[in-house]
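sry for the spam today, last one i promise. C-alpha cells for design, 217 residues
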C-alpha cells in the first residue's frame, strides 16, 4: 500500500491539473536509457504525481496513443495511463494504474503493435488474450480487473515498459531484421543529439532517476 496525499481530483480536474515548474514532460524515444530502466513501486502519491498522470494523458492523446507508461516520459515510477479507445471524450475508458501486477494470462494471440517511443514502427506481437490486473488508483484504492482483447494487450504492453521491456524485444529474428534499419535511424539520431550536448549521458540519466526514486519509492 502507498500513501496518497491530499484531496483527490475528479477525472476532469485530473486532466487540467498543473503545478510546479518540473512538470514539462515529453515522450522520450528509443534508445533513451530510461526506456530500459526497471521502474520502482510508488510508496507515496502526491499532487505532483497526479499532475504527472494528467500530463501523461495529454501527451498520449496529442500523439494519438492508447497507453503511456512513466518510463516513456522519463520517470522511474510504476505508473501508466490508458484509454483503449484513444478518444479523450471517452472519460469512462480512462485508467491510471499504479504498481500494477499481471496474472492469470490465458491464450496467446497475435496482434499489431506500435509504440509512442518508437514512432513509425509496428509489428505483430503475441500476447495473452485475457489477463488479471491488480493495481492502485490515484486515491490509493486497490483495484482488480479482468481484461480481455485489445485492452488486455494495451495493459501488457505498458507493464512491459515498466519492466524496461519494449515490444521489439518480443519480435522474431525475421521481424527484427525488417525493422533494423528504422531502429538504427533512431540510434544514430540519439547519438548525434548526445554529441551536440542535447541529451544527457547515461550517468546523468541514472542520477536523475535515482533522485526521483528517493522522493517516492
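last one done:
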Amino acid at each position: 500500500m502507498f500513501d496518497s496525499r491530499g484531496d483527490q481530483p475528479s477525472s476532469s480536474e485530473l486532466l487540467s491539473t498543473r503545478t510546479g515548474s518540473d512538470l514539462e514532460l515529453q515522450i522520450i524515444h528509443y534508445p533513451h536509457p530510461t526506456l530500459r530502466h526497471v521502474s520502482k513501486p510508488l510508496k507515496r502519491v502526491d499532487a505532483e504525481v497526479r499532475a504527472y498522470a494528467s500530463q501523461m494523458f495529454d501527451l498520449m492523446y496529442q500523439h494519438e496513443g492508447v497507453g503511456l507508461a512513466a518510463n516513456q516520459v522519463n520517470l522511474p515510477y510504476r505508473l501508466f495511463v490508458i484509454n483503449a479507445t484513444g478518444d479523450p471524450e471517452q472519460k469512462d475508458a480512462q485508467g491510471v494504474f499504479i504498481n500494477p501486477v499481471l496474472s492469470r494470462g490465458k491464450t496467446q494471440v497475435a496482434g499489431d503493435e506500435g509504440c509512442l517511443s518508437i514512432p513509425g514502427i509496428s509489428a505483430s506481437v503475441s500476447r495473452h488474450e485475457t489477463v488479471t490486473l491488480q493495481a492502485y488508483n490515484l486515491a490509493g484504492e486497490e483495484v482488480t480487473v479482468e481484461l480481455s482483447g485489445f485492452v488486455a494487450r494495451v495493459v501488457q504492453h505498458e507493464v512491459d515498459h515498466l519492466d524496461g521491456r519494449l515490444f521489439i524485444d518480443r519480435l522474431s529474428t525475421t521481424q527484427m531484421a525488417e525493422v533494423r534499419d528504422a531502429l538504427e535511424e533512431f540510434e544514430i539520431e540519439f547519438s548525434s543529439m548526445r554529441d551536440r550536448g542535447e541529451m544527457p549521458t547515461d550517468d546523468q540519466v541514472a542520477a536523475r532517476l535515482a533522485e526521483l526514486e528517493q522522493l517516492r519509492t
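The chain has one domain: 3-216. ok im logging off now
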